[in-house]
Specification:
mainly alpha; globular; Hypothetical Protein Ta1238, Chain: A; two-stranded antiparallel sheet
């Protein structure tokens, strides 16, 4: 028998974390991993504008965001049992940022988001990423959170910023 998409367990406004703990859907932990999901969906839309290495980079990020979301969805009882993040994503993002920045002109002041669609969408992804980072920091102020997650989200928003600039320069 095919498994149904609905379970009815969330109809009362609660959801189950990895480990079995039930929390309300407005819980800061749910907000954090829900915003990661929103970011991943927006990155999926961004990917429709990309090809080759750029597409591979976004797909890598999307895959790793599942790890971030899983880490955030753990309840306290299993938080120490599941280790998903290490500094490898951080290192890769920094390498990509450094590569992109070598080809960017010097900038002074704020950049108005826009330009080609892919670049504009990249900046939308960046702002969702920043919101996810804020939710994770809020969660970390209340409950144990892998500190690598905050660093990864901070670096990811930096990557999305320069990636968007690169897309505009390439397509001008």
């Amino acid at each position: 028998m095919k498994k149904k998409i609905y379970t009815r367990r969330g109809d009362g406004g609660q959801t189950t974390l990895i480990g079995g703990q039930r929390v309300y859907k407005y819980d800061v932990r749910v907000e954090a991993y829900g915003t990661i999901d929103e970011l991943n969906s927006n990155l999926g839309l961004l990917a429709t504008y990309l090809e080759n290495e750029e597409l591979e980079q976004i797909r890598y990020i999307q895959t790793r965001l599942f790890d971030v979301g899983t880490s955030l969805a753990k309840d306290i009882k299993v938080a120490s049992e599941i280790v998903l993040m290490d500094s490898s994503m951080l290192n890769i993002l920094e390498k990509w940022i450094d590569q992109i920045e070598t080809d960017l002109p010097d900038r002074d002041g704020f950049i108005i988001p826009g330009g080609v669609r892919a670049s504009a969408l990249c900046q939308v992804c960046r702002t969702v990423c920043r919101r996810a980072e804020r939710r994770i920091v809020e969660l970390a102020s209340q409950k144990p959170v892998d500190p690598v997650l905050i660093k990864v989200m901070n670096r990811l928003s930096d990557f999305l910023f320069v990636f968007g600039l690169k897309l505009n320069i390439r397509n001008v």
